[in-house]
């Protein structure tokens, strides 16, 4: 689900930028900022780069539905659905600083307008994703500096968005519960 959510976000943001600036080429890439050897990936050149920087488990909302009804009327006991929030760094990796700012502004406009994406707002949302919510993360200058230093990259104009509620559900049942077919009347007169 993590890969699907990030790739879907990449695709819809890319289409928004292509439409906004009348472009033929893709301008958004889902990638690391720095290769393992410390080099900047060539694919990132003059692009908006989406990078996953953190995953946190959502604990504020209950979603412990454990029994799923099967076709035969019985129930499969499943592990509870877990939901996660993804922190996504959106960086403008352009040779021209003005161009970087222009694209970053358009990205921020996209997320301001599309703060929620679901089947009602996008017909191409992948199976398994019901809704994605985007919220800008408020971090200080020092936190941003620490992030870029930890990644081993030179700062680029960037913003962090929290992508909320990525569902992860195991498909292996923990057990089965038969349906109730008889009710005994234990009350006596």
In short, what is this structure?
By secondary structure, the protein is an alpha+beta fold. It has helices at 2-21, 97-113, 141-151, and strands spanning 28-30, 47-57, 67-69, 75-77, 82-93, 116-118, 131-136, 158-168, 175-177. It has a single domain (2-63, 80-168), classed as STM4215-like.
Structural notes for this entry:
The protein is 25% helix and 29% strand. It has 189 residues and is an alpha+beta fold. It has a single domain, classed as STM4215-like. The N and C termini lie far apart (57 Å). The strands form two sheets. Strands 1-2-5-8-7-6 form a six-stranded mixed β-sheet, covered by helices on one side. It has a three-stranded antiparallel β-sheet with strand order 3-4-9, with no helix packed on it. The mean pLDDT is 85. The longest helix has 20 residues. Helix 1 packs across helix 2. The protein is elongated, with a radius of gyration of 22 Å.
- Number of helical stretches of at least 4 residues: 3
Q: Biggest β-sheet: count, sense, barrel?
A: 6 strands, mixed
Could you tell me the radius of gyration in angstroms? 22 Å
What is the distance, rounded to the nearest whole angstrom, between the alpha carbons of the first and last residues? 57 Å
Question: What descriptors fit this protein?
Answer:
alpha+beta, 25% helix, 3 helices, 29% strand, 3-stranded antiparallel sheet, 189 residues
């Amino acid at each position: 689900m993590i890969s699907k959510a990030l790739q879907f976000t990449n695709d819809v943001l890319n289409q928004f930028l292509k439409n906004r600036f009348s472009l033929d080429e893709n301008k958004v890439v889902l990638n690391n900022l720095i290769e393992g050897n410390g080099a900047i990936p060539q694919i990132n050149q003059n692009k908006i780069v989406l990078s996953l920087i953190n995953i946190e488990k959502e604990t504020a909302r209950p979603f412990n539905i454990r029994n799923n009804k099967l076709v035969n009327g019985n129930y499969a006991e499943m592990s509870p659905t877990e939901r996660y929030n993804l922190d996504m760094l959106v960086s403008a990796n352009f040779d021209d600083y003005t161009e970087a700012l222009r694209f970053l502004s358009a990205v921020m406009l996209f997320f301001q307008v599309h703060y929620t994406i679901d089947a009602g707002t996008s017909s191409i949302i992948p199976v398994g994703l019901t809704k994605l919510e985007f919220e800008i993360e408020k971090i200080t200058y020092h936190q941003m500096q620490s992030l870029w230093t930890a990644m081993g990259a030179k700062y680029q104009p960037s913003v962090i968005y929290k992508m909320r509620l990525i569902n992860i559900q195991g498909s292996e049942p923990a057990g089965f519960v038969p349906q109730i077919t008889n009710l005994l009347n234990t009350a006596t007169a």
